[in-house]
Design goal:
By secondary structure, the chain is of the alpha+beta class. About 10% of the residues lie in helices and about 25% in strands. The protein is built from one helix and four strands; from the N terminus they run E-E-H-E-E.
Length: about 90
């Protein structure tokens, strides 16, 4: 599928903040600091749409991105904690 439009919608911290649109959702789930947000940027060919960082814990809320006005990419915070070497 060709991606024509990709927009950040909301960073939800509770269910009441979730988008009201009843569109399908594709969730990106994984351990802390493995590149979930980077994969979203790569798939969308948009550097910086999903915020990234070299340190764990950058994604704090559940981030929704509307794709082609047909579905959402959902970027979830990582589980576990990846320690950064000092």
């Amino acid at each position: 599928m060709k991606i024509v439009s990709a927009d950040f919608v909301v960073s939800a911290h509770q269910p009441a903040d979730f988008p009201r649109a009843k569109l399908p959702q594709i969730a990106f789930v994984g351990r802390s600091n493995v590149g979930k947000s980077s994969v979203i940027n790569c798939l969308l060919q948009r550097k910086g749409l999903a915020k990234t960082s070299s340190s764990p814990g950058k994604t704090r809320g559940i981030n929704f991105y509307r794709i082609n006005n047909r579905y959402f990419f959902v970027d979830l915070p990582g589980y576990g904690f990846a320690k950064v070497s000092q």
